[in-house]
Amino acid sequence: MKKTDTIVKYNKMTIKSLLAEEDVLKMKLNSLRFSVNFGKTKNIHKIKETKRNLARLKTILSEKLLSNNNEKI
Length: 73
Hints:
This is Large ribosomal subunit protein uL29. GO terms for molecular function: structural constituent of ribosome. Belongs to the universal ribosomal protein uL29 family. With 73 residues, this protein is mostly helical. The protein has three helices and no strands.
């Protein structure tokens, strides 16, 4: 998935679904690291891609949380 597609997808998601997606990405990252360490796969670039998607998700999540807090004030 392209970077802009991922960002648009995350912007459309709710906070609850972003938190669930964060857990999924963390589990995916751990399984990728495990499989690379034991030689099951050579797709090292998938680790980099997953880390970047996780960072994008966390950025959008923090923006949404901050905007929700500012609306309540």
